[in-house]
Amino acid sequence: MTWLKLLARKYRTLFGLTHRERSLLAQALWLLPAVAIALQFKGLRFTQDLLLWLCPSSQSIAEPIEPQIWTTVKMVKIATRYYQPWANCLKKSLVLWILLRSQGIISEIRIGVQRESTKFAAHAWVEYQGMVLNDSDDVHQRFQAFDRLFEQSVEVKP
Predict the structure, then answer these.
(1) Which of 8, 55, 88, 133 is deepest in the core (most CB within 10 A)?
(2) pLDDT at 1
(3) Would you call 22 helix, strand, or coil by DSSP?
């Protein structure tokens, strides 16, 4: 009977969301595995170009922007709970970045590196006007970010 209670709680949560939130959640749910597969077989540059081609930037930005941003961050976070194998920092950041872009909010994917003794670590996050969206504010102290990931183009031949 526990699974029935869990299902009822999930149902209430889902239908407690606004139409916009449900739409963002649905997009994040299909984008996470798609991004995982594209990264696995074609790499980062192709994946980012493919996302730009699939989800063109919206020209109209509804005001205020900040609630839109935080709603999108929240929906990507919820979606990643269901796709743990596909939900590393790069995949989550790519999904957040493209969902923001599709709403006309231009953000940046940042990739940084950290070297502790003999270990090497890399991490990805998204920033909007210098504000870290999907990580803690101290990410710049923990990881040295590259200046620029790469220029985006939209010439994709899937």
Answers:
(1) 133
(2) 59
(3) helix
